[in-house]
Each structure stands twice: as structure tokens, then as C-alpha cells.
Amino acid sequence: MQNKLNVVVIGIGMYSVGRETDGFGTILPALIEWKRDNDNIGKVFFVGTNVKSAQIAKDKISKIKKHTGIELNFDVFPKKGNVDNEAYKKVLSLIPRPACSIIVVPDHLHFKVALDCLNANLPVLMVKPLTPTLEEGKKLVRLAKKKNLYAMVEFHKRWDKANLMLRDTIQKNNIGNLLYCWVEYSQRKSIPTEIFKEWAEKTSILQYLGVHYIDIMRFVSNAIPVRTMAIGQKKWLTSKRLDTYDSIQCFIEWMLPDGSMFNQVILTNWVDPESSSAMSDQKIKLVGTSGRFESDQKERGIKINIDNVGIEQPNPDFCHEFGNEVGRKEWRGYGIDSVKNFLTDVINIKSGLISLDQLQIDRPTFAEALISTAVVESAHKSLERKNIWIDINLDNKYE
């Protein structure tokens, strides 16, 4: 095994390095925290599509070093030219080559970039969702299986303590037979109109955001989706010349391992006011024959009210910056844990400490993510076909 784990990060936007924000995103802080705790991270290659975004990433990395005192050995690409949509391919062939890849690109590019990384024999961590279509997802699963590669989707909500409590409650049968689940998940208008404006029309609020709680339902219940139906509204965003849904309501019928059925309703939108006290407003309720579980995942118990800023409700559990005892900054949260777990898994696989078969059970691998992909694709078909119910066929989903 090589002494140092070289990593390529493909995509250097908001979630990767905090572009267009005052922060540093999630991927960059997670790599910093990995470096703080481990001596086996080598060089990190951050790859965008133009020199301007690469320079922004470079500035962010230099700034976070001053905040943390952690030195990250890095390089940024592309180094010249106006636009190079395939700059990442050059990095995949570098010597010494990267040992794993983290893909943080728009939804519609997931398949192409993941395909290239797997063909380069790199383990992959993909930001959610897996792919827009089940066909694309299955091709990636087959390729990863053929090459015996670890491929995981960064469904960070699986590491959220609130969702782990929900899972334990269900697994212990504390609320009895499941009847229905209700989810509300929304974000501010600036997400589709500013931050993701270039590709907002190529995704949907259900695919980009709601997919989290499809995966969480699978994670906490071990259920399989049977059919789905969706209703959507196009009003405000179309007035801004963005042809995408303001809001989608998705209805899913699930079957538990014992054959019993329950329903889930996911209400999503990305047209919340900019004055909202948090970027994401999210709630989940699950009702059974013996009780209920309610989790307001926006209300994390903290409210901050400052002149000329207004009320903020930060989430200290996702990816938050904290000062430590020596005056430096460090990041903690389930967003950090998700990325660090992937890197740990890659090391453990190389060391023979864990098998790919075991990770298929414990992690949101590409094969596991086919389930949420199938639901989203079927929901989109429902929207196209005047809101009819669409059956979900997951036969041979791991092949």
C-alpha cells in the first residue's frame, strides 16, 4: 500500500470549497479534518472547468490554512485557458496517480465523470444523487463490481444523530407497525436562481434535495419502494426564466421486509424567502400503530438574532466551524463524518481490514443508491404523465 493517499476532488463549487459563500463548503473542511487526524493523506487535486474557479479554490484553501493551521498539500486545475470541461481527465492520468476520487459536479454530469473515474480504477465518493436515471446508475454499479472498486454516494444524513435515533426507534419496533411518513424539505430562492442557476433546469428539487429523505427512509426501515406518484408546480421560477419546478410533492408506497406496506409523503420546494432563518427547512414525522417519531431538523435548539442580520438558526450538527482551545478553527458534523468515513474505508480496503461485501451492508454504495434513483426517476415520469402512479421495478438491482 502506498504511504500517502492522493485524492482528486472533481468540482469546486459551493459544496466543495464554498464558492460564492463566506464559508469553505463541506468537502474542503472534511479533508482538513482528515489531515488533522491522519498522516496518510498525500496530495489533493482540486479540479474545476476554468482558471477563474481554480483560483477561487486556491484562495479558499490558502485561507482555511490560516484559520486551522493545517497544511494541505494541494494543486488546482485547470491552469490555463478559458474553459476546459475535461480538465479532470488529465489529473486522472497523473503520476503518481490519485488513489480515490470525490465527485462534486452538477447532477447531469454524475454519470460521465463517475464512469471516467471508475475506468481509471479509482474508488469514488459521489455527492447525491447517484444519477438522474436508473439505467445510468446500473451501468456504474456493474462497472464498479467488475473492477472490484468501492463506490459510495455521499448521503451524509445517514450520519445525523437524529436519523440514527429514528432508525433505532424503528428497528426496536417501539412505534409498532409503520403507517405513514411525512417529510417537508425546502431551501431559499437563491439556490436555483443564483448558486445553481447554470444547471437548475437540468435537475429538480426532488432529485437535488428530496432524494435525501428517500434514502433515509430506505436506511431506517430497510423497506423497498413499490410505486410513486408526484405533483409539481411551476410558477415563480418560470417567471425568472428558469423552466423547473418550484415545488414537488412526492408520494411513495414502501414495502417492509415482512411484506407490510406504509406510505411516505415528501413535500419539497426551493423558493423559500431569503429571510428564512436557515438555508434548509426540514422536518420528518413517522407514525406507527404504537406511537410516533418527530424530528424537526431545522430546530437544532439555537437561535441567533443580530442587528441588521435578523434571526438565524444554525445547524451545529452538519458542518460547523468551531474555535478550539489554541485559537484555531476546526469543523465537526455529520457532513464531515461522511467524507472522513469514505477515506477511512478506502484505507481499510487497501489494508485488507474490511471487505467490499461488508461495505455493501454498512454504507450508501452505488448499488444501494439505485433505490433512491429509481424513486426519483419514477416520480419524474409521473410528473410527465399527468400525475399517475408509476410502479417501481428493482429486479436485479445489484447486477
Account of the 3D structure:
This protein is α/β, with parallel strands linked by helices and 399 residues long. 36% of the residues lie in helices and 25% in strands. The chain is built from 13 helices and 17 strands. It has a 7-stranded mixed beta sheet with strand order 12-11-7-10-9-8-17. Strands 3-2-1-4-5-6 form a 6-stranded parallel beta sheet, with helices on both faces. A hairpin with a 3-residue loop joins β13 and β14. α2 crosses α11 and α5 runs parallel beside α6. The longest helix has 19 residues. It is globular and about 55 Å long.
Question: Order of strands side by side in the largest beta sheet?
Answer: 12-11-7-10-9-8-17
Helix and strand element order = EHHEHEHEHEHEHEHHEHEEEEEEEEHHHE
Shape, per Cα inertia axes: globular
Largest sheet: 7 strands, mixed
Gyration radius over CA:
21 Å
Uncertain residue ranges: none
Output mean pLDDT.
95
Strand tally, please? Answer: 17
Rounded to the nearest angstrom, the distance between the terminal CA atoms is 30 Å
Please bin the fraction of helical residues: 25-40%
- Beta-strand portion reads 25-35%
Q: Count of helical segments?
A: 13
Structural class by helix and strand composition: alpha/beta
